[in-house]
């Protein structure tokens, strides 16, 4: 595989057509030359799932093997270990060598049916600046039987600020390579946190037979003229988190719904008044009824109330969707 990865990097750097790539590296399988002619610099090795790549399921201790064609009539069989069952249709695969180790990226799709989706509760998820996600479980009614809020991702804001400061400091010194390195490190750390948060939310929903409710954040950057707030919104990965939650939940057959998010943090969920105040970032105070609570908890409560009664969720039954998911095997 080292020979294939080295040849791939050579071909995508010079950016030659197929014939030029074949003359440069006749020792590797011709499909690599074909894909390299349209690849961009630093792209991982693209594996054609029809001729270059195949996943084999076994009954051995290593449940899966991958067969990768490296030369004409020569395949390498590699055992792979994954905690998750690989099901569905593999229609895209890429191989990346990083720090001396190989990573395999599989894009798998399957048809998910919600025929048996009869949720008995709602898991409302509010996204904010202080806590990137706050989840509250509601069962039977909105005045009782709701769980304590689960606050998640409080360290994301501090992490983004730390790396923004480092990038600014390195940028002044014209250390552009270090800026890219720091940005990549930040992205990996933030993505790891987001994946853990989305998994926690999906697990809670599955354990409680709940539908996941998210706020629709489309157009949020156009709702305020505050430069500080716009900068905060731009730096927080809300859209990425909603995508992670949705594809993981739908893959397991858990429905994900969205409702309008506008004004959910401003209105008092108890009396409906907008005569409210936030003395500091995490506290919500209603001057009309005197109610006080965490601002993210108030937002999640308003989202759940906008969805309506649980009986209306039976409309989910009979629907289905084609879901795509990315598996990373290291």
TrEMBL record:
For whether the record's keyword set contains DNA-binding, the answer is yes
- Tell me yes or no: is DNA-binding among this UniProt entry's keywords: yes
| Domain Cas12f1-like TNB: residue ranges | 238-303
- Molecular-function annotations in GO: DNA binding
Q: Which key words tag this protein in UniProt?
A: DNA-binding
Which InterPro entries does the record associate with it? Cas12f1-like_TNB
The protein in question is named: Putative transposase
Report the source organism.
Nitrososphaera gargensis (strain Ga9.2)
